[in-house]
Amino acid sequence: MRQGMLHVRRTSSETLVAKRLRTQVAIVGAGPAGLLLGQLLHREGIDAIVLERRTPEYVLGRIRAGVLEQGTVRVLEHAGVAGRLHREGSIHRGIEIGIDGRRRRIDFEALVGGSVVVYGQTEVTRDLMDARAACGARSIYEVEDVRLHDIAGRTPRVSYRQHGEACEIECDFIAGCDGYHGVSRRSIPPEALQVYERIYPFGWLGVLADVPPAWEELIYASSPRGFALASMRSATRVRCYVQCSLEDRVEQWSDERFWDEFKRRIGEDVAARMSVGPSIEKSIAPLRSFVAEPMRYGKLFLAGDAAHIVPPTGAKGLNLAASDVWYLYEALREFYVEGSDRGLDGYSARALRRVWSAVRFSWWMTTQLHRFSDEAFNERIRAAELEYLFGSRAAQCALAENYIGLPL
Ligand code: RFL
Ligand code: PHB
User: Are 48 and 137 in contact (CB under 8 A)?
Assistant: First the structure.
């Protein structure tokens, strides 16, 4: 019985429920993690409902990741949503690392035989939304007051309100794909979770602008004024970041101030040849590393930013969301198709192994490339480490191998 039924019933908490739905997997959150899981399950004939508190336009308006690992591309192919990505995404076979005006190319292909694809998270999300709409799978946007019930018991349910109406979904499992600020992780009793966290003493100010990039590959630049990243979305659109203070507000950063600061950090040759233009998006993101373990509590499975956050320096957040979702999809398929609990029981440990390797790499990239108002000893160690990276093929291989993504 998968269809929705309209009737009024009282739940144990005495709320009047106007609409009751039934599905196999209730997915909370329509970011890349939730939508990708929904698509993979749909292709396997497993029913899911996706619940999202924002509008589709709002979700698409968030400018975030830009770099996809090969493993993520394969998962998107498996979900049947990689057509436009292959046509419009651009393959990058290396990145450049800048230190105080000097630059070194990290040649992924020569060092480890791999590459990444530059294709915005917005586009991945749009492709997933389109695929979901095309197959008629159920997504419910603008839901309020989402609550999870009986997650450790036999009758897991998700209640919510939409346009003032109380609704409830009965399900076998709940996938918590609702990001760092979502309700899923907070529904787990605190004593059942172990949390690991590092907050960095700076943020990233990002600007999106319609100008052609003056760089062919991403440039991660460390300068005495702080970090800067030159990235792109297409042959006509750049995405650039500068390290900023946590106290800074977007209003304090005019476009002129942003470009001036970016040019001072990115390297003189690039600054001399780049063009600038008005920002079409500007935002500040704080940087943190965060992991909540385990990623399962009873019938609730966390995936993506709901369970972990990495600083954007390693370009790992979206890719980790994709690997979590892949493992969770395999586990659910094993359950529904083969009748085995094994994948579900092993999900958290399997996902966390990959999570921690990305947490380590993102922490390393962040600490090496940013300026901390730090003690002199740490500054010297940081400089020595970057010097080693510039001179050692082994160090470059380690960076390349992690950047393109460890195997799924
Ligand atoms: P999301 O994208 O946060 O989606 C969660 C969704 O859940 C909804 N939600 C709820 N829905 C219903 N009920 C509730 N109570 C809800 N609470 C929340 C939210 O509205 C939202 O739609 O998490 P997801 O799907 O796990 O995806 C994670 C990625 O978005 C994230 O890791 C990346 O964007 C991180 N990231 C990067 N990752 C990369 O792999 N490569 C990159 O180059 C990269 N660059 C970045 C980034 C993140 C950045 N910011 C802004 C944090 C650059 C930046 C600047
Ligand atoms: C981006 O293009 O937004 C981007 C690229 C690489 C990163 C972070 C963000 O490490």
Answer: yes
- Of 35-39, 297-301, 330-334, 382-386, which gets the smallest average pLDDT? 382-386
The arrangement of secondary structure in 2-69+120-196+288-368, i.e. its CATH architecture, is 3-Layer(bba) Sandwich (3.50)
Q: Output the CA torsion 106→109→113→119 (10° steps).
A: 90
* Annotated catalytic residue, options 312, 327, 329, 347: 312
The Cα 126–Cα 209 span in angstroms is 20
DSSP one-letter code for 254:
-
Contact 235, 212 (CB under 8 A): yes
Q: Quick: pLDDT tens for 390-399.
A: 999 999 999 9
Closest ligand to Cα 358: 1
Ligand minimally distant from the alpha carbon of residue 118:
2
Residue found by looking up tokens 């029981």 in the block: 345
The pLDDT-based confidence of 15 (bands split at 50, 70, 90) is low
Q: In this structure, are residues 369 and 227 in contact, taking their beta carbons and an 8 Å threshold?
A: yes
pLDDT > 80? residue 236:
yes
Reading the block at residue 389, the tokens are: 């990276």
Q: Is it the case that residue 115 has pLDDT exceeding 90?
A: yes
Distance 393 CA to ligand 2 centre (A): 24
Per-residue pLDDT at 12: 47
Phi/psi for 342 (5° steps) reads -55, -50
